[in-house]
C-alpha cells in the first residue's frame, strides 16, 4: 500500500503519514485578516491543499482545521481607521480570502475557527499555564516563562541565547512598553493588557481587560478541535520561529503530551528573483494577476512548479508556461475522453470521488514522485512524458486508466473547462485601449511610442499581431 512521505521539520527526516482509526488531524495556520492574501501566502495554502488531496486519494479520514487570526495590532488598527467594528472589518477580508481560495480550487477546511470565537478556551489554557508555574502576570499582561520549558527550541534548533537575540530584534517588540516587564527578553505574551489604542477591542479576564497574544490562539484552537496531539501541523517556513516554537512550548507545558507528530513547512516565494516586499511593490494578489489576464488555475499551477522545501522564483514567464501546460492537459483529457466515449461532465464528477488504485499500471512514476515528499516537479515531468507518448489504451483497460488519470488531475487541483480554453480569453478594457493607442501611434509613424506600448503589453502578458489593416491581441503563451 502506498503512503505519503513528507519531511518532518522537527526530526529533519522524511516520514510516512499513517492512517488512524478515528481521524487524521491537520492544523494549518490561516491568514491574519487585515488585507488580501498575496501569492506568497497562497503558495503555502496550495501546497497544504495538495497534501489534503493526496490524503483523500489514500482514503484518510481527514479533519482539517485552518484558523483565522482576526484580532491583533493590524486588525485593530485597520478597523479603527475604517471606523468599523472589528467583526465587520475582518469579515470583509475573510470573504475576500475565501473567494480567492475558491478561485484557486482549494478544498474547504473541515473547520475555519476565528481566534475571537475561542477567547474562553484561550483564557483557560493561560490559567493552566499559570497554575503549573509556566507563566506569570505583570501589569495585567501574562507571559510564558521560557526557562520553565527545557525543550524550548527543539523545532527550530536554536539555542536560548540565540532565541533571545532574535526576539529582541523582532519587529515591533520595543514598541510595547509592557514588554519591558518580562523576566527575560525571550518570554512571550500570552495575554496583552488593554491599551488606549485598542479602543473597544478587549475582553474581561482574571488579569484585567485585554486580548490574547498571537501564539496562544493556535494552541487553544488546535486543542479544542483536534485534541492534545495534532497529526500534521503546517505553515510557511517563516512561522517555524517563533510562532510554532511557542505553540509547542505552551501546549506541551500545559498538557504534558506531544503537541504535534509531524511538522510541515513550506519555503519562501520570490517574485522575478526578488524577495516579496511592499517597498518593491511585488506583493502580488490574485486580483492583480487577473488584471494581467492570468487565470487563478494558472497561478495555482505555477505555485506548484517548484519543490515545496525550496524557494520558488515566481515569474511571468512561469505563469505563461503554466497556462500553456494547462491547455495541453485540457486538450489531452478531451482526446482521452473521446476515445473512452465518456463525457467531460461525468469525468469531472468522477475526479472528485476517485481514490488511488492499489497498483498503478499507467502512471506509477507520477504517483511515486508525488508520494515521495511531494516532488511535484518530478511528477509533472512524468505526466508530460506520458502525454507525449500518447499511449493508446486498450478499451478493456480504459476504466483503470481513467481512474489513474482522474486521480492525477485531482491531486494537482486541475480545473477542466467545458469549452475550448483558447476561446475563453477575455481581453481587459485597459489592454484593448493600450493596443488601440499603439495602433494609432504606429499609423502616425511614431514607432518609438508604438514599441514602448508593445513592450508594456508584453510585460503584462499580451502579444500584438499586426496585419496590413488591423491587429489582434493574444496571450503571450499562444
Notable characteristics:
single chain, 478 residues, alpha/beta, four-stranded parallel β-sheet, four-stranded antiparallel β-sheet, globular
Oligomeric state: single chain
**What's the overall geometry?**
globular
Query: For the CA atoms, what is the radius of gyration?
Result: 25 Å
Total count of strands: 15
Largest sheet: 4 strands, parallel
Helix content: 40-55%
Uncertain runs are: 170-177, 420-424
The largest sheet has its strands arranged as 4-3-9-10
| Backbone structural class | alpha/beta
Question: What's the overall average pLDDT, rounded?
Answer: 91
Give the amount of beta strand, in percent: 5-15%
Query: Count of helices?
Result: 16
| Straight-line N-to-C gap | 42 Å
Short description:
The chain is of the alpha/beta class and 478 residues long. The chain is built from 16 helices and 15 strands. Helix 1 (39-57) packs antiparallel against helix 14, helix 2 crosses helix 3 (86-103) and helix 15 runs antiparallel to helix 16 (447-459).
Task: Give the arrangement of secondary structure elements.
Blueprint: E1 5-8, E2 13-16, E3 24-28, H1 39-57, E4 62-66, H2 73-81, H3 86-103, H4 119-131, E5 135-138, E6 141-144, H5 160-168, E7 188-193, E8 210-212, H6 214-226, E9 230-236, H7 240-255, E10 260-266, E11 269-271, E12 274-275, H8 286-291, H9 296-303, E13 312-314, H10 316-340, H11 344-351, H12 364-371, H13 376-389, H14 398-412, H15 429-443, H16 447-459, E14 462-466, E15 471-475
Parallel strand pairs: 3-4, 3-9, 9-10, 11-13
Antiparallel strand pairs: 1-2, 5-6, 6-7, 7-8, 11-12, 14-15
Amino acid at each position: 500500500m502506498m503512503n505519503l512521505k513528507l519531511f518532518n521539520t522537527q526530526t529533519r527526516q522524511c516520514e510516512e503519514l499513517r492512517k488512524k482509526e478515528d481521524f487524521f488531524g491537520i492544523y494549518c495556520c490561516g491568514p491574519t485578516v487585515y488585507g488580501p492574501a498575496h501569492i506568497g501566502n497562497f503558495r503555502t495554502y496550495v501546497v497544504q491543499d495538495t497534501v489534503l488531496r493526496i490524503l483523500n486519494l489514500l482514503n484518510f479520514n481527514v479533519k482539517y482545521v485552518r484558523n483565522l487570526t482576526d484580532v491583533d495590532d493590524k486588525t485593530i488598527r485597520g478597523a479603527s481607521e475604517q471606523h468599523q467594528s472589528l467583526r465587520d472589518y475582518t469579515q470583509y477580508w475573510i470573504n475576500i480570502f475565501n473567494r480567492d481560495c475558491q478561485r484557486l480550487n482549494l478544498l474547504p477546511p473541515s473547520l475555519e475557527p476565528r481566534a475571537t470565537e475561542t477567547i474562553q478556551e484561550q483564557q483557560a489554557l493561560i490559567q493552566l499555564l499559570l497554575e503549573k508555574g509556566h507563566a506569570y502576570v505583570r501589569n495585567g499582561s501574562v507571559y510564558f516563562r521560557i526557562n520553565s520549558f527545557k525543550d524550548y527550541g527543539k523545532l527550530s534548533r536554536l539555542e536560548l541565547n540565540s532565541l533571545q537575540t532574535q526576539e529582541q530584534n523582532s519587529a515591533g517588540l520595543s514598541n510595547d512598553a509592557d514588554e519591558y516587564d518580562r523576566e527575560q527578553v525571550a518570554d512571550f505574551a500570552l495575554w496583552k493588557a488593554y491599551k488606549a489604542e485598542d479602543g473597544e477591542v478587549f475582553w474581561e479576564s482574571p488579569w484585567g481587560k485585554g486580548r490574547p497574544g498571537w501564539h496562544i490562539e493556535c494552541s487553544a484552537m488546535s486543542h479544542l478541535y483536534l485534541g492534545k496531539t495534532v497529526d500534521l501541523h503546517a505553515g510557511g517556513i517563516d512561522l517555524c520561529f517563533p510562532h510554532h516554537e511557542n505553540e509547542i512550548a505552551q501546549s506541551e507545558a500545559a498538557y504534558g503530551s506531544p503537541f504535534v507528530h509531524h511538522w510541515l513547512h513550506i519555503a519562501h516565494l520570490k517574485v522575478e528573483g526578488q524577495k516579496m516586499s511592499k517597498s518593491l511593490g511585488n506583493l502580488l494578489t490574485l486580483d492583480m494577476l487577473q488584471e494581467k489576464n492570468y487565470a487563478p488555475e494558472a497561478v495555482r499551477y505555477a505555485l506548484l512548479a517548484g519543490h515545496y522545501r525550496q524557494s520558488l522564483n515566481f515569474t511571468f514567464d512561469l505563469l505563461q508556461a503554466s497556462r500553456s501546460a494547462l491547455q495541453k492537459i485540457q486538450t489531452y483529457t478531451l482526446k482521452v475522453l473521446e476515445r473512452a466515449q465518456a463525457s467531460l461532465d461525468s469525468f469531472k464528477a468522477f475526479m472528485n470521488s476517485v481514490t488511488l488504485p492499489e497498483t498503478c499500471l499507467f502512471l506509477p512514476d507520477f504517483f511515486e514522485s508525488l508520494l515521495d515528499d511531494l516532488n511535484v516537479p518530478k511528477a509533472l515531468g512524468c505526466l508530460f512524458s506520458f502525454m507525449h507518448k500518447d499511449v493508446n489504451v486498450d478499451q478493456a483497460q480504459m476504466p483503470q486508466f481513467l481512474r489513474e488519470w482522474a486521480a492525477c488531475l485531482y491531486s494537482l487541483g486541475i480545473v477542466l473547462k467545458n469549452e475550448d480554453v483558447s476561446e475563453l480569453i477575455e481581453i481587459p478594457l485597459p489592454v484593448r485601449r493600450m493596443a488601440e493607442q499603439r495602433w494609432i501611434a504606429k499609423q502616425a509613424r511614431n514607432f518609438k511610442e508604438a514599441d514602448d506600448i508593445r513592450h508594456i503589453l508584453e510585460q503584462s502578458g499580451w502579444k500584438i499581431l499586426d496585419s496590413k489593416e488591423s491587429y489582434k491581441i493574444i496571450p503571450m503563451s499562444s
